[in-house]
Each structure stands twice: as structure tokens, then as C-alpha cells.
């Protein structure tokens, strides 16, 4: 399967839809609106940080299991980024060392490939959408999910800035599968259909190079 990666508001969900349509494959979305833990987490990150990660881990593993049989199915977020988000939260004191250790060990166990399994849990391609901090803030505002708004909680400004910065290093060191980067500032594939065509072409080229298409 193909997985999308990128910061909050990068455009993962939109590109997932576009790609699955284009490739004639299935799209898998993680619904944010039905996530009852997320608003609680934004209200009290220290209390709900660990629970939220377990929630996501469970959901994303289920997605991987449902989508693995087609290399071209598209998932709107990778399981690997959760570790990045959790590390950030742990560094901000929103999780204890024990919670962080248990989380890493659980993730490692869940993602371990078994001998003789027909399909791997690692994706066939990871596509990361990189946007500047300014673009990230604009998109979060435009989408308007109340619990994500900086006006309601000014401390989110630093959280978002740090998160966006960490994505750059995370992508550089990601080595679980082939990967490619899409410049989300250069290609506004949601608003601009020409940019959308260009992005689909970039992905097609990569899939051809990997013999997936
Ligand atoms: N592992 C995690 N830990 C903490 N928060 C998370 C985690 N994964 C997702 N979130 C939160 O869930 C919300 C949705 O994030 P996500 O990036 O998955 O979707 P999105 O913002 O709709 O992305 P896009 O606009 O690129 O489609 C955000 O508020 C994000 O902070």
C-alpha cells in the first residue's frame, strides 16, 4: 500500500482521495471527526496523550491489515509518524518515560514482519507532503477544527512550530520503505488543478520507477 505523511493540514486526506481515484484503488481514511479522544487530548494532553497514541496505533494497524493486499491502496497517514508525534509529546512532558518506552516497544512488536507472511506491513511507498510553517498555520485556520485553533490555545503555536520542524528530520531519516517528497507550498493540489496533475505525474513516475505500475 501507499501511505501519505505530513504535518497537520498538509493535505494528506485530499491527496489520498485524488491518488486512489487516479490509480483505481481503495482509499483508507482515519476519521478525525469520529475520534472522541482527540478533543480530550487537546484539552488535557498530559492526561490523554498515552491513551490517544494507543487509540491511533490500534486504528492504523487495522487500516494496514485491511489494505495490504493491493500495493496501490492509499492510506491517509502513516503509523510511523505517530512515533514522531508521541516523542514530541513526551519531550514536552505530556507522557512519562515509562509510557514512551512501552509505546515504542508495542509499536516495534506490532510492526515486526513475520517470516513467510505473504505481505509486508511496511508500505510500498511513503509520500510525504512538506509545507512551510506559514502554510500549515493557514490551513489549520482555514479548516477551522475548533480544538486545533491557536486563538483557543496560544500554546499550540509552539507545538505546531516544533512539529513542523521535526517532520523535516523525520523524513530525512525514514528508511522503512521507498519514499518521495511533495512540496506542498509549490503544488497547491487542492486549489489548483494544474498543480494536481503535476503531482499525480510525479507519483506516477515514482511508481513506474519502483515497478508498481
Ligand atoms: N499520533 C498523534 N498524536 C497526537 N496527535 C495526533 C496524532 N496523530 C494525529 N494527531 C492529531 O489528529 C489531528 C488530525 O491530524 P492528521 O494530520 O492525521 O489529519 P489532518 O490534519 O486532517 O491532515 P491533512 O489535512 O493533511 O489531511 C490533528 O489535530 C493532529 O494533531
Can you describe what's shown?
Pfam families: dNK. It comes from Limosilactobacillus mucosae DSM 13345. Belongs to the DCK/DGK family. GO terms for molecular function: ATP binding; deoxynucleoside kinase activity. With 213 residues, the protein is an alpha/beta fold. The protein has a single domain, classed as Rossmann fold, CATH 3.40.50.300. 54% of the residues lie in helices and 9% in strands. The protein has eight helices and five strands. A five-stranded parallel β-sheet has the order 2-3-1-4-5, sandwiched between helices. α2 packs antiparallel against α3 and α3 packs parallel to α5. The mean pLDDT is 93. Adenosine-5'-triphosphate binds next to α1, α3 and α4.
Structure summarized in a few sentences:
The protein has helices at residues 12-23, 37-43, 45-67, 80-91, 97-111, 133-143, 156-173, 193-209, and strands at 2-6, 27-28, 74-75, 125-130, 179-183. The chain has 213 residues and is an alpha/beta fold.
Amino acid at each position: 500500500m501507499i501511505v501519505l505523511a505530513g504535518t497537520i493540514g498538509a493535505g494528506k486526506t485530499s491527496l489520498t482521495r485524488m491518488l486512489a481515484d487516479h490509480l483505481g484503488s481503495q482509499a483508507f481514511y482515519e476519521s478525525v471527526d469520529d475520534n472522541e479522544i482527540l478533543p480530550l487530548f487537546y484539552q488535557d494532553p498530559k492526561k490523554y496523550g498515552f491513551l490517544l497514541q494507543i487509540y491511533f496505533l490500534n486504528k492504523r494497524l487495522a487500516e494496514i491489515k485491511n489494505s495490504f493486499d493491493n500495493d496501490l491502496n492509499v492510506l491517509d497517514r502513516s503509523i510511523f509518524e505517530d512515533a514522531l508525534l508521541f516523542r514530541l509529546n513526551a519531550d514536552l512532558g505530556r507522557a512519562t518515560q515509562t509510557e514512551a518506552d512501552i509505546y515504542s516497544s508495542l509499536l516495534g512488536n506490532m510492526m515486526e514482519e513475520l517470516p513467510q507472511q505473504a505481505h509486508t506491513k511496511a508500505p510500498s511507498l511513503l509520500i510525504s507532503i512538506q509545507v512551510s510553517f506559514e502554510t500549515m498555520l493557514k490551513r489549520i485556520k482555514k479548516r477551522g477544527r475548533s480544538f486545533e485553533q491557536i486563538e483557543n490555545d496560544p500554546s499550540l503555536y509552539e507545538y505546531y512550530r516544533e512539529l513542523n520542524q521535526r517532520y523535516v528530520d523525520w523524513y530525512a531519516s525514514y528508511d522503512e520503505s521507498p519514499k518521495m517528497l511533495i512540496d506542498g507550498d509549490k503544488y497547491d493540489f487542492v486549489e489548483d488543478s494544474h498543480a494536481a496533475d503535476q503531482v499525480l505525474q510525479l507519483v506516477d513516475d515514482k511508481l513506474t520507477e519502483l515497478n508498481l505500475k
